[in-house]
Q: What sequence folds into this?
């Protein structure tokens, strides 16, 4: 039985740090046994310094993949991701920079190819959110920043990576339950996550003939640094018993999300493209 993580009111500043979270996040189960599903693959993961991205990196490494971890500026968190990946016996290249800059995205892919000689799995996971109660309170700058971080980056990075992907390779995009339920406090964030679902479906139809699969994961509430740095920064009480409104009555730990990406990246998902997995604690969204 998975026990509920007791989460209490707290706050951080963006982009958030794993070391400041109480309780700490858990990224992979000790009893998770890799079975070479991604042996000698190379995965490029954005937002891999913490949260879901770090969990994906560790699960991929345990399944035999080398990892390129993209991140903005959280150097300590990124170095910890590298340490954990290397402890699994795999290589990890760290690249920091702004994914909203198309030149950075092209450079990150070029460094991936230069260091590893190939690219098999692209995980578009980087994201941000800010809380506002009313549309009129969302500044033009906030709107642009949210779209630049969450959807523009996905376009730039995928465009740069696509020429290197081949048959049986995969693209996995991180969406959110919020694309389906539309929370009042996260209007611009939810709009980007809806765009990610549509991007996933259309791109899947574009590249399916090449044998490249494109899917998404739409998590529910997950205990990551983004929560105290956004919800908590707006009102620390928003994190009191975070996730208790799900049917399971709790938030997920990142280790519960990472295996979804393993499945979609591996040939276990060879007949799946244009789809979305919903690890959300039991909420039925029919999408």
A:
């Amino acid at each position: 039985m998975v026990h509920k993580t007791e989460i209490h009111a707290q706050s951080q500043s963006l982009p958030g740090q794993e070391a400041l979270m109480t309780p700490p996040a858990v990224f992979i189960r000790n009893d998770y046994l890799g079975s070479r599903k991604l042996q000698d693959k190379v995965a490029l993961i954005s937002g891999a310094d913490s949260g879901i991205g770090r969990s994906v990196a560790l699960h991929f490494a345990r399944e035999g993949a080398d990892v390129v971890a993209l991140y903005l500026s959280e150097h300590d968190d990124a170095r910890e991701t590298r340490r954990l990946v290397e402890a699994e016996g795999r290589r990890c290249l760290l690249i920091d920079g702004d994914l909203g800059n198309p030149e950075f995205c092209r450079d990150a892919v070029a460094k991936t190819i230069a260091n590893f000689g190939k690219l098999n799995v692209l995980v578009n996971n980087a994201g941000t959110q800010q809380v506002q109660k009313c549309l009129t309170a969302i500044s033009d700058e906030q709107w642009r920043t949210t779209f630049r971080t969450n959807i523009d980056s996905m376009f730039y990075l995928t465009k740069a990576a696509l020429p290197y992907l081949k048959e049986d390779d995969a693209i996995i995009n991180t969406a959110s339950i919020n694309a389906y339920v539309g929370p009042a406090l996260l209007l611009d964030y939810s709009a980007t996550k809806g765009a990610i679902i549509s991007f996933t479906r259309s791109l899947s139809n574009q590249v399916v003939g090449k044998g490249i699969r494109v899917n998404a994961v739409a998590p529910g509430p997950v205990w990551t640094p983004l929560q105290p740095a956004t919800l908590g920064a707006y009102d620390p009480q928003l994190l009191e018993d975070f996730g208790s409104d799900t049917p399971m009555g709790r938030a997920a730990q990142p280790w519960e999300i990472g295996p979804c990406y393993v499945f979609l990246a591996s040939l276990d998902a060879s007949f799946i493209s244009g789809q979305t997995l919903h690890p959300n604690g039991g909420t039925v969204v029919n999408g």
